[in-house]
Amino acid sequence: EEEEDGDPFAANPESRYRRRATLERLVGLAPFGRARRPPPKDGDGDSGRARRRSEDFGLLRRLPGRRKASVEALAERPVPKRSSLLRLALGTRGRRGSAGERPPTVESEGVSDGDQDGGGQRQEGRGKAREPLSVLEILELIQRRELVAADEQIIALEAECVALSPSPSPVPAAGRQARDVALLYEALLAQLWAVVGEAVPAGRPYPPLRSVIRVLEQEEAADRRHPPGTPGRPRALRRRWQEAVGRAAGERLAQVAPPARLGARLAALAARLVGDLGAVRCHVAPAYPSEYGAFGVYARGYHRALAQQLGALAQRPLAVPDLYLLLDWHSNTYPREVLGHPEVGALLQAQALGPLLPPETQRSLESSCIAAVKVRAPWQARGRARDGDWDGSMTGTRVALGLALLLRAHVDRAPQITPEFGMEMAHSLLGVLVTFLHSFQRKVERFLEAPGEATPPDGATGRAIALVNCCPPFRTFVERLAQFGHPESEEPRRQAHAALDKVTRLCNHVLTQRLFEDLKPYFNKLMKRKWLTSSDAFDAIVMHITSFTQKLRPLRPEPYQVLVSEVHRRVLIEYVRPLLQVRLVCTSAKMRARVAARLGDEARQLRELFSRLDSTSPWLDSVVPRLRELLVLEDTAALQMEVGVLVRDFPDVRRKHVAAVLDVRGLRGQAARQEILGVVQDLEQSEAEPGLPRQRAFFSELAVTREVRCLPFHLPRLARLSRLRLRRP
Questions:
Q1: What is the pLDDT, as a whole number, of residue 388?
Q2: Band of pLDDT at residue 329, cut at 50, 70 and 90
Q3: pLDDT band at 401, cuts 50/70/90?
Q4: 306: which residues sit within 8 A by CB, 6+ positions away?
Q5: Backbone torsion region of residue 171, taken as left when φ is above 0, otherwise alpha when ψ lies between -120 and 50, otherwise beta
Q6: What pLDDT does residue 2 have?
Q7: Average pLDDT over residues 336-350
Q8: Burial class (CB in 10 A: 0-12, 13-18, 19+), 581
């Protein structure tokens, strides 16, 4: 048992000496002891004060894969003040009894006892400033986020490590301290970047951010103090801070819950980015010095993080609507709703952030969208153009409108993303449209050429009107696609118009065939002697044409004008045909005047009729008056001049046509005929006119089988002479 004075070795001094020898051997053992150090040299003062060893922390480096867990375990466990082994073993009384026999220590009593008894944080801080802390104590400072003080201690520990490195004799403590410094910096940086990541979500001024800024400044000063080539220097914490800001931005955007729809996800990402940058502008950026350019660093970090999110979305298989949505959000919505935001838009635009997606990624998305549309549109077009669609359930007009609306949706949306994308999409759709129009033309040909025996007469007319009404929307759409200016769009445009022209001609033929079949008997009665005295045949022609045009009211304006112009041309051809067939020969000037007057009156009626019908071929109105003048004029020079005007207005007129009119006139003089016909021959040789388009062709469709020559005597007198001879016995 202990004696009353508290000395357990008072009865046996030898046991005391043995006990002391044992403690002296244990004092230097880690992790409990304090290292012995040689007595300080003269003049060293406090600089020779030794730092307590930390082999216990250095052991964490030797356990692969468990360093992080060990550091966290140490952080969670409270670290007591380092106490003397004598005090642990002997207690207070034992320490007092052996105070004169202990070797000198390196700890100050203020650190070991005074702070635990409630001496206050000020005394503790002064004690730490007087004496370097152990590694575990520095780690405790880091965990308590006393980052500035911890960084000062790490810098001092690093300086000791650098001072021991160039010594000639191997110093095991130097390598151990270097590992401790690396581990402490790792823990310090983890806390620094954690504070950086917490500042933005706080949404208010965040005081711990000031500690981060002070640590950055201390480390930059330490980088400047160390010479080049110092291990671990420069640490460039400002660059690492920028990288940490980018990682924090990526984590913030990754926390956005992925909705089911792509549009909702993009909207959520934009809202998170605008909200966070608003917090940076108001609370985070003002805490940094101006030379840090804090808002620009955060803006670039969020921009890169959003670019990574969009890049990941672009790698997924997307449908055509989602492709349009992603491309439109990248090109229009992001600049409008984020870069144009009233609070942060101007600051973002000043950073010159560039596009979110690289150009090759955007072109890849555009190509995928165009390819998908090319595959999808023909399938839908074939579905609309099935054979069953040509019956009463769906008219041709509805087919055209449906397909035009289908393709117009892509033409309207693609140019809003980029003009280049719009041009490529238009060229692709033009090829799709040409393929469909060729199929459409073949179906119209089969349908109109063999409509079926059970089809009523009026049914074919109605279907032809419906089909020809398809052409104007297609023509308009073809021109719109060609206006995008793709260098290879001219040939598809020509093919599309050729197919539509063929469909229009087929439908017009069906519509006018019945009309001209009805008009044929009346045209056969023209240019005869009875025609000079009766206008019934011509009045019937006008009545049939007027009645026919009443059935064309369902036609669109463009096909209506084309059809009326074609009717106008064919009516005048059929009207002039009997004149050139020389059914009537004028035997006197009086008869020529009657024929000319009748031609002039009926030409006026035809001009007024087709003017009311809105014909777009007024050039046809002059053909009958020109032929009439050849019957009225008497002077050969005037006739030559009139023939020249006729050839100028109608380049397809030929010598045989003028000769037929001269036969009707009754011009028998060969010299005068040759002078007049020579004008036509001279013009034919001097003006080698190329083939006229069908819409301008007139005399080329009027065939004259033979040239009628006038006999040198009067035909009625010859007829009477032949009758007299027949009466003779």
A1: 44
A2: very high
A3: low
A4: 253, 269, 273, 356
A5: beta
A6: 40
A7: 86
A8: middle
Two structure tokens written together for 138: 């520095």
- Determine the Cα angle at 672 with ends 669 and 674, to 5°: 105
**Residue 646 pLDDT exceeds 60:** yes
Distance (Å, whole) CA 28 – CA 287: 48
CA distance 414 to 534: 66
- Residue identified by tokens 């519509």 is 511
Supply 214's token pair. 């002070």
Pairwise CA distance, residues 209 & 486, whole Å: 56
Show the DSSP H helices in 581-697 as ranges: 589-612, 623-632, 636-649, 655-665, 670-686
- Average pLDDT on 353-377 reads 90
61 and 183 Cβ atoms separated by less than 8 Å? yes
Is the pLDDT score of 38 beyond 50?
A: no
Question: Would you state the structure tokens that stand for residue 559, as one six-digit string?
Answer: 């096909």
In degrees and rounded to multiples of 5, residue 523 shows phi and psi of -65, -30
Q: Are 562 and 504 in contact (CB under 8 A)?
A: yes
Which residues neighbour 487 within 8 Å (Cβ) at sequence distance 6 or greater? none
The rounded distance, in Å, linking the Cα atoms of 310 and 304 is 10
**For residues 257 and 259, what is the distance between their CA atoms, to the nearest angstrom?**
6
Q: Which two tokens stand for residue 426?
A: 């238009």
Q: What would the pLDDT profile of 161-183 be if each residue is shown by its tens digit?
A: 877 765 544 445 567 888 889 99
Q: Could you identify the residue written with the tokens 């023209």? A: 526
Closest CA to 471 of 435, 515, 419, 507: 507
- Cβ-in-10-Å burial (0-12, 13-18, 19+) of 134 comes to buried
Q: Report yes or no: 7 and 97 within 8 Å, Cβ to Cβ.
A: yes
pLDDT higher than threshold 50 for residue 652 = yes
Determine the Cα–Cα distance for residues 556 and 549; give it in Å rounded to an integer. 13
Tokens of 247: 């990682």
Summarised one tens digit per residue, pLDDT across range 657-687 is 999 999 999 888 889 899 999 888 877 766 5
3-state secondary structure 308-375: HHHHHHHCCCCCHHHHHHHHHHHHHHHHHHCCCCCCCHHHHHCCCCCCCCCHHHHHHHHHHHHHHHHH
What is d(CA 475, CA 244) in angstroms, rounded to the nearest whole number? 59
Element (H, E) at 544: helix 536-550
693 alpha carbon, distance to own chain's centre: 43
- Among the ranges given (42-56, 169-183, 224-238, 526-540), the one the predictor scored with the smallest mean pLDDT: 42-56
Q: Which of 665, 523, 648 is nearest to 589 (CA)?
A: 665
* Cα–Cα distance list, 183 to 131, 153, 177, 240 (Å): 21, 13, 10, 17
pLDDT above 80 (res 94):
no
- The arithmetic mean of pLDDT across residues 251-263, rounded, is 86
